[in-house]
Design goal:
By secondary structure, this protein is mostly helical. It has a domain at 34-81. The chain is 78% helix and 0% strand. It has helices at 10-54, 58-61, 64-81.
């Protein structure tokens, strides 16, 4: 049975790889901002409840950057520890 056999040239493979890398990079870039927003909102809710108890938790509110950085480092460590299946 004769089927379509697609032979890609080297420049076509390179171009498709480039498009895939750029596309995945854009998706990961947007996911990082969505994750930052979620961490920001979550820390804001926690700090607002603490602020009512402590009186002034304004300095604590800026600590969401550290929580986000820790979360990104933890995710990066987990990704780099996994092995690729080939």
């Amino acid at each position: 049975m004769g089927g379509w056999e697609l032979k890609l040239k080297t420049w076509q493979k390179t171009f498709l790889s480039m498009l895939c890398i750029v596309g995945a990079g854009c998706i990961l870039f947007n996911l990082a901002f969505i994750l930052a927003y979620l961490v920001h909102i979550t820390c804001g809710m926690v700090m607002s409840s603490l602020g009512q108890r402590l009186g002034n938790a304004r300095a604590l509110y800026f600590s969401w950057h550290y929580v986000y950085l820790f979360f990104i480092l933890l995710l990066s460590w987990a990704v780099f520890r996994t092995r690729l299946v080939t």
